[in-house]
UniProtKB/TrEMBL annotation:
PROSITE patterns: FAD_PCMH. The keyword Flavoprotein applies. Its cofactor is FAD. Keywords: Cell inner membrane, Cell membrane, FAD, Flavoprotein, Membrane, Oxidoreductase, Quinone. SUPFAM superfamilies: FAD-binding/transporter-associated domain-like, FAD-linked oxidases, C-terminal domain. InterPro entries: D-lactate_DH_C-sub1 (IPR016172), FAD-bd_PCMH (IPR016166), FAD-bd_PCMH-like_sf (IPR036318), FAD-bd_PCMH_sub1 (IPR016167), FAD-bd_PCMH_sub2 (IPR016169), FAD-linked_Oxase-like_C (IPR016164), FAD-oxidored/transferase_4 (IPR051264), Lactate_DH_C (IPR015409). This is D-lactate dehydrogenase. One of its GO terms (molecular function) is FAD binding. Its EC number is 1.1.1.28. Residues 430-464 are annotated as: Disordered.
Length: 464
């Protein structure tokens, strides 16, 4: 299949340009490349990339694509690691249209911030920022927040692998489009909000944010995974607490993985914990981590907020190849990261046309530049890495901090390994600040974080 425009679909492209405006339609392969290439892998051809500016425009673009029998790829930040946001190869039987939702980035707080209505392009970072003054936080406070990942993208893929208390991203309340048995596009409003009866009425009211408290219904449908705590505590179950494509977590938009076009989701938010603490656990025996996992999940009164497992090899990889990203976040803050990743994508697309530059030039350049700076990890962490092969970063909150401190102290009197308490706010760095808590004064030796806000490592899956 060729993505070059022909007479047979020039009319279709003209229709798209009319719907969104010529400046919001890309067809030049050089300009569409960054949208056709995955964050980590995956790449293919596409007829066009479309940027609707309203939900009503999105609805009309979808209808045009369905009528023209095009393959539709919904894409937000294109930060996915499993090739779900881009074409994968060039052997499709029809032309592909990528619909980018980056312009659809509104959010609307409900019930004084206890719930949120997120649009297709709403990012985790913007939601976190909106909730912070209210003392609340979104379901997912994870590594991809700092690179512009979208809220709806997380719902569609049940994200949140390291989250123990809240589990996978999930909701039973959403607004989405699907193709019915007759091949027609149908808009389904299961938001639990009275917005009218026709697609035009529903989408226009959302575009204008004409939502009153009386329109919002509370009918018992869930806006997060209420059952996860029970499942994750059942450490002797025959099945894992969570796994990919778990049928119990597939509900309309939740876990749909691109099979629906999602216009909005309604989600719960959560009180932000004022006291948080990370315990950095090290051991050379995997069985020790198994015992820790089983005891904490089954016996602790307070579940961990999150857990991140990291092997010594991953530590080395992160230390070497993640230094440039760490320094950018630490010096510039997470709010600048989406912009830099956008610029990186554009630069990569431009340089790939120049034979002088090797593939992934920007990554190589930034990594080499990062090595010019002094070591960013404290010596105590390097000693910890040398001493232990297996590492677990365990984030506790509230009264769970003292509970974990007492039990870990007692446990490691007889078990092989040890643990450190980590704080944020000091000069030493290297610990994921999303896993650290703020503290005045000097941090304990063993590492601390400053402004770096996120960390991405191998996900700790609390499964039997």
């Amino acid at each position: 299949m060729s993505s070059a425009p022909t007479d047979t679909h020039k009319t279709f492209l003209a229709d798209l340009a009319r719907l969104v405006g010529p400046s919001h339609l890309l067809t030049d392969p050089a300009k569409t490349q960054r949208y056709r290439k995955g964050f980590r892998s995956g790449q293919g051809e596409a007829l066009a990339v479309v940027f609707p500016g309203t939900l009503l425009e999105l609805w009309r673009v979808l209808n045009a694509c369905v009528d023209a029998d095009k393959i539709i790829l919904m894409q937000a930040a294109n930060t996915g690691l499993t090739e779900g946001s881009t074409p994968n190869g060039n052997d499709y039987d029809r032309e592909i249209v990528i619909i980018s939702t980056l312009r659809l980035d509104k959010l609307h707080l409900l019930d004084k911030g206890e719930q949120v209505l997120a649009w297709p392009g709403t990012t985790l970072y913007s939601l976190e920022k909106a909730l912070k003054p209210l003392g609340r936080e979104p379901h997912s406070v994870i590594g991809s927040s700092c690179i512009g990942a979208s809220v709806i993208g997380g719902i569609c893929n049940n994200s949140g692998g390291s989250l123990v208390q809240r589990g996978p991203a999930y909701t039973e309340m959403s607004l989405f489009a699907q193709i019915d048995a007759d091949g027609k596009l149908k808009l389904v409003n299961h938001l639990g909000i009275d917005l009218g009866s026709t697609p035009e009425q529903i989408l226009s009211r959302l575009d204008d944010e004409r939502i009153s408290d009386s329109d919002v219904l509370h009918d018992g449908r869930h806006a997060h995974d209420h059952d996860y705590v029970t499942r994750v505590r059942d450490v002797d179950a025959d099945t894992p607490a969570r796994y990919n494509a778990d049928p119990d977590r597939l509900f309309e938009s939740s876990g749909c993985a691109g099979k629906l076009a999602v216009f909005a989701v309604r989600l719960d938010t959560f009180p932000a914990e004022k006291r948080q603490q990370v315990f950095y656990i090290g051991t050379n025996q995997p069985q020790v981590l198994t015992e820790i996992r089983r005891h904490i999940l089954a016996e602790f009164q307070h579940l961990p907020v999150a857990g991140e497992y990291m092997h010594r090899d991953i530590y080395d990889i992160a230390e070497k190849y993640g230094k440039d990203t760490f320094l950018m976040i630490d010096k510039l803050g997470t709010d600048k990261m989406p912009f830099f990743f956008t610029m990186k994508g554009r630069t990569d697309a431009m340089l790939e046309k120049v034979s002088l530059f090797k593939p992934h030039f920007t990554d190589r350049f930034m990594q080499k530049l990062g090595h010019v700076f002094p070591a960013h990890l404290p010596e105590r962490m390097k000693t910890w890495r040398d001493k232990y092969e297996h590492h677990l970063l365990l984030k506790m909150a509230g009264d769970g901090i003292e509970e974990a401190q007492r039990w870990l102290t007692e446990y490691f009197q007889q078990a092989e390994g040890g643990f450190l308490r980590l704080y944020a706010g000091g000069r030493q760095q290297g610990v994921p600040p999303s896993l650290c808590r703020r503290r005045r004064g000097n941090p304990l030796s063993g590492g601390a974080c400053r402004r770096s806000r996120r960390y991405s490592g191998a996900g700790y899956r609390p499964a039997p």
